[in-house]
Design a protein that fits this description.
Strand content of chain A: under 5%
Number of domains of chain B: 3
Structural class of chain A: mainly alpha
Radius of gyration of chain B: 34 Å
CATH architecture of chain A: Up-down Bundle
Distance between the termini of chain A: 7 Å
Largest sheet of chain A: none
Order of helices and strands of chain B: EEEEEEEEEEEEEEEEEEEEEEEE
CATH class of the largest domain in chain B: Mainly Beta
Number of helices of chain A: 5
Largest interface: A-B, 19 and 16 residues
Oligomer: heterodimer
Largest sheet of chain B: 5 strands, mixed
Helix content of chain A: 55-70%
Low-confidence stretches of chain B: none
CATH architecture of the largest domain in chain B: Sandwich
Helix content of chain B: under 10%
Chain lengths: 169, 308
């Protein structure tokens, strides 16, 4: 793989954090499936559009169109977005709350790892991003379905991130 | 209004230090003789006169005594006067003595992936004989731990425990933090040396579960002196890239362990050969986070197997 200005320890830690979040996120999806029988995100696409559940891009991180600084920015912005989405799901249910809390912490910690790496490289934006408007849920069902969609979007975001990071280790 | 009253220079002192006390008898104490000799008694020791006794301007009498070396951690000092054929205790003060806390030592921490908390423990140091509070203090930092970023909520251990757990919500994983222990009592404060660590670098891993594989002869021809094994990583730590080592030993007196290193953390089929057929072997496996820094797990429970 091409040599990179990123220290190997940053890449290894980031990969471990991605796997940690993926494991936790899978737990969340399994719990939402077991508890509410919402097991197929593809069945919620229509609802996702009406709720406005966003997807975070990672276009600058693919090996074909790699742009380091923009890739880091996209990683951070994506984690920041999903962190906000997970917060919007607070109160989803007592069964899921512990997993959701831990997931939020893991996502926030990974965002800090990326932000500090940007600072070290001197490419950090001048200010932390501000949260874009998040979906509002008007029913318990919407909140649960929103949770499934957010978690599944996060899972594919992490998959892309893992491939990109793994490519450079 | 009581007849006598004791005042002490310092109620809690360092063991072996001197302490000065005075007992004042008020003039309104009519039942006593005009100028009674004021006496002192430490714990159940002899009654002894003070170093000096004098009149005060308001007509009261004051006796002063200095105990050169207090060597009781807790003692009662009484002020008495002769009365008929005996004595009367007019007042009593409690003396406490001990030591300022020594610096706590051997601070170490482990990240518990089951409770998601950072568990730290330390040596409190010698007994102080005084109520002493220990607090685990910490703050977030950057790579070399020289600068303090956000401070973290003090971790107060349960009574008389030398361990404290910092909850996940206070931890910033994959970043360094600084930790130390502060000990405090009325005689002083001390601090342990500081520890600089990333909680994920001190994860307490559990070993994989080592299992024997039953390979049917049809699939793989039987080879004498071989064993088939499999293992899976400990679930809470499966997101952590690990390296493992296997050790085995025939259950014969005086034999040593043989070590197989650089093994993956998950293995569906592992063939171990070169073993003697007769004896039963004990096998164990352990793992460590790698290539990122980490700590060895303990060895897995011994698996007893007889080679083919």
């Amino acid at each position: 793989p091409p040599s990179l200005p990123w220290p190997r320890s940053f890449l290894l830690k980031s990969l471990e954090q991605v796997r940690k979040i993926q494991t936790r996120n899978s737990e969340l999806l399994e719990q939402l499936c077991a508890t509410y029988k919402l097991c197929h995100p593809e069945e919620l696409v229509l609802l996702g559009h009406s709720l406005g559940i966003p997807k975070a891009p990672l276009s600058h991180c693919s090996s074909q169109a790699l742009q380091l600084t923009k890739c880091l920015h996209q990683l951070h912005s994506g984690l920041f977005l999903y962190g906000g989405l997970l917060q919007a799901l607070a109160g989803i249910s007592p069964e899921v709350a512990p997993t959701l809390d831990m997931l939020q912490l893991d996502v926030a910690n990974f965002a800090t790892t990326i932000w500090q790496q940007m600072e070290t490289l001197g490419v950090a934006p001048t200010a932390q991003p501000t949260q874009s408007t998040l979906p509002t849920f008007t029913s318990a069902f919407q909140r649960r379905a929103g949770g499934v969609l957010a978690a599944s979007h996060l899972q594919s975001f992490l998959e892309t991130a893992h491939c990109a990071l793994n490519h450079w280790v | 209004e009581s007849c006598g009253h004791i005042t002490i220079s310092v109620p809690i002192i360092r063991l072996g230090d001197p302490v000065t006390a005075s007992c004042t008898i008020s003039p309104t104490c009519s039942k006593l003789a005009q100028e009674p000799q004021i006496l002192w008694r430490l714990q159940d020791g002899p009654n002894q006169p003070g170093d000096s006794q004098r009149h005060l301007g308001d007509g009261s009498q004051e006796s002063t005594i200095t105990l050169p070396h207090v060597n009781h951690t807790k003692a009662f000092l009484s002020c008495l006067v002769p009365w008929a054929n005996s004595f009367q205790v007019l007042d009593q003060a409690e003396l406490q003595a001990g030591y300022p806390p020594a610096s706590p030592s051997n601070l170490s921490c482990l990240m518990n992936l089951t409770t998601n908390s950072l568990v730290c423990q330390w040596e409190p140091g010698p007994e102080t004989y005084l109520p002493t509070n220990f607090t685990l203090k910490s703050f977030r930092s950057r790579t070399d731990c020289r600068y303090q970023e956000d401070s973290i909520l003090d971790c107060v251990p349960e009574d008389r425990q030398s361990t404290c757990s910092i909850a996940r919500k206070h931890l910033l994983l994959y970043q360094n933090m600084v930790l130390w222990v502060q000990a405090e009592n009325v005689l002083g404060t001390s601090e342990s040396p500081k520890l600089c660590l990333d909680p994920m670098d001190v994860v307490k891993l559990e070993p994989p579960v080592l299992q024997a594989l039953d390979i049917s002869p049809g699939l793989v021809p039987r080879q004498p002196g071989c064993l088939w094994l499999s293992w899976k990583p400990w679930k809470p730590g499966e997101f952590i890239e690990q390296e493992c080592e296997l050790r085995y030993q025939p259950q014969l007196r005086g034999t040593n362990w043989t070590l197989v290193s650089h093994l993956p953390s998950s293995e569906d089929q592992f063939k171990l050969c070169g073993l003697h057929q007769a004896p039963v072997y004990t096998l164990q496996i352990r793992c460590i986070r790698s290539p990122l820094p980490g700590l060895w797990s303990s060895w897995s429970p011994g698996l007893q197997l007889r080679p083919t």
